[in-house]
């Protein structure tokens, strides 16, 4: 597999045994994320530019579970390995709480974006007024432990339930060995299609 600029090669993470173990699991697929690619429209500029430097997010490698064609949505969970630098701190050697919220929101956003690719063609072709498919209605976060930097963290997100245009999710930031730094519950609402 060739790796676009927006996707960090697995070798960036495999020096850590817990990362190597996750990356060796064949039931997960590595997937690029468009939010790490700078765009002329300035869309995703916070994650693609501001948070993509040697002192911010130094590496990003997303994965998703195999699609289940009988499920809505077909991809039920994502995980992202993130190599965090020390330019993200609120306190010495401790990531800012706003960054923690950003990473949880990004994990859910990635899950939504991946599932958009699996939608039927007729559903994907419907335009919205804004060009945005989903909006965050809420992201309720529980901070559980300080997220120390620099270091590698695991962001995970999964689907709780779907009702019409509403999607409920869970998300977590972990160290890969059982310590949870923060967890969240989120509601995203699908924009109404342009008529």
TrEMBL record:
Gene3D superfamilies: Hotdog Thioesterase (3.10.129.10)
Domain of life where this protein originates: Eukaryota
Pfam annotation, one family: 4HBT
Residue intervals of the Thioesterase domain: 94-165
Cited InterPro entries: HotDog_dom_sf (IPR029069), PTE-AB_protein (IPR052061), Thioestr_dom (IPR006683)
Protein name: Thioesterase domain-containing protein
Organism: Coniosporium apollinis (strain CBS 100218) (Rock-inhabiting black yeast)
Taxonomy of the source species: Eukaryota, Fungi, Dikarya, Ascomycota, Pezizomycotina
């Amino acid at each position: 597999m060739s790796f676009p600029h927006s996707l960090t090669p697995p070798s960036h993470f495999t020096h850590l045994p817990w990362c190597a173990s996750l990356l060796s699991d064949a039931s997960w697929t590595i997937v690029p994320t468009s939010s790490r690619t700078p765009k002329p429209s300035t869309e995703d500029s916070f994650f693609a530019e501001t948070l993509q430097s040697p002192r911010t997010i130094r590496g990003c490698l997303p994965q998703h579970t195999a699609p289940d064609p009988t499920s809505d949505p077909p991809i039920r969970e994502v995980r992202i390995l993130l190599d965090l630098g020390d330019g993200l701190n609120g306190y010495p050697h401790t990531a800012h709480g706003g960054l923690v919220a950003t990473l949880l929101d990004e994990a859910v956003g990635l899950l939504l974006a991946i599932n958009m690719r699996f939608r039927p063609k007729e559903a994907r072709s419907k335009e919205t007024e804004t060009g945005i498919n989903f909006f965050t209605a809420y992201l309720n976060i529980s901070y559980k432990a300080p997220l120390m930097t620099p270091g590698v963290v695991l962001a995970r997100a999964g689907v709780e339930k779907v009702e019409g245009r509403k999607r409920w999710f869970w998300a977590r930031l972990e160290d890969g060995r059982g310590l949870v730094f923060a967890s969240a519950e989120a509601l995203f609402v699908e924009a109404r299609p342009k008529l």
